[in-house]
Amino acid sequence: MEVKKFLALGDSFTEGVGDVDLGRPNQVRGWADRVAEVLCTQGDWEYANLAVRGKKIGQVINQQLDQGLSMKPDLVSIYAGGNDILRPTADLDALMRGYEGIVRRFNEAGSTVLLFTGFDTVESPLFSKTRPRTAIYNEKVREIADAHGAIIADYWRWREFSDVRYWAVDRLHMNELGHGLMASKVLEVLAEHQVTDDDWSQLIQAPVLPELAVNSRGEKLKAELGWAREHLAPWIKRRLTGTSSGDTLSAKYPQYLQLSAATN
Fold first, then answer.
1. Is residue 89 part of a domain?
2. pLDDT digits (tens, 9 = 90+) for 214-253
3. Structural domain contains residue 241
4. Does 158 or 204 have the greater pLDDT score?
5. Longest alpha-carbon distance in the chain
6. What pLDDT is attached to residue 128?
7. Which of 52, 103, 75, 107 is nearest to 6 (CA)?
8. Does the CA dihedral 98-104-109-112 come out positive or negative?
9. What tens digit of pLDDT does each residue of 73-104 get?
10. Which of 31, 42, 120, 188 has the most C-beta neighbours closer than 10 Å?
11. What domain count does the chain have?
12. What is the domain-level CATH number for residue 123?
């Protein structure tokens, strides 16, 4: 049987930030690795991941598109735009024209394209103001998917991700439980659209959520101050200086490989 190829493009969401694994490249695992582990173990698949944290749509186009096309994937996942949405200003119409260009190129090359809507930040005190932009982004994603036959993993509508226990301490990325749930969701979508022969989502162990912590007002204040010092301040500094946490990093898996849970 011919080996199929799964390629992942994008930013920190797809790189796997928040799902710490010190034995892997860039020290993260993530939903895409978890999906690939199932595909490679249960079917004839290979996997590559070009996503790097901090990348904006223009950078994905300039740094990942040509390489990705040369790799001729059967399935390509694309998620970018979150870092653009978080900037003080963003021309979403122009950005999404570029995004559509990525999808069109892969569609014309014969790849099945998997897109994501953005997460609904309605319950996030820090990021709720970006919700209108994300809603516009999502509608553009749906239009692009309709125009080019892409399939959608509808992050916006998966309300279970609003549970804080699925999120890392930086409050911006999913933790290992969130990435595990996302992997299961993606496998369901792939099976629904017959990209995979079977629904292997049940092979992702269901996350066991810890009890919600009940903290005093003093403990909550201490946690808020610690989070602001360790995560918010560096994030703001990077925005002001035009730097990114991914500036010194390379893609985790720039060449196809057979991935397993034990692969480093």
1. yes
2. 566 665 555 545 544 565 556 566 666 666 676 789 999 9
3. no
4. 158
5. 61
6. 78
7. 75
8. positive
9. 999 999 999 999 988 888 999 999 999 999 99
10. 31
11. 1
12. 3.40.50.1110
- What percent of the chain is predicted at pLDDT more than 70? 85
Q: How far apart are the first and last CA of the chain?
A: 26
DSSP string covering the chain, please? Answer: -PPEEEEEEESHHHHTTTSB-TTSGGGB--HHHHHHHHHHHHSSEEEEE---TT--HHHHIIIIIHHHHHT--SEEEEE--HHHHTSS---HHHHHHHHHHHHHHHHHTT-EEEEEPPP--TT-TTTGGGHHHHHHHHHHHHHHHHHHT-EEE-GGG-GGGGSGGGB-TTSSSB-HHHHHHHHHHHHHHHHHTTSSSS--GGGSPPP-PPPPP---HHHHHHHHHHHIIIIIHHHHHHHHHT--TTTT---SEEEEE---TT--
Inter-CA distances, 176 with 241, 251, 260, Å:
30, 20, 16
Low-confidence winner among 99-108, 137-146, 197-206 (lowest mean pLDDT): 197-206
Instruction: Determine contact, residues 77/124, Cβ cutoff 8 Å.
Output: no
Q: What is the pTM of this model?
A: 0.89
Residue 73 inside a domain? The answer is yes
| Residues of the domain holding 150 | 4-212+251-257
Q: In sequence order, what are the beta bridge partners of 113?
A: 76
Pairwise CA distance, residues 37 & 54, whole Å: 25
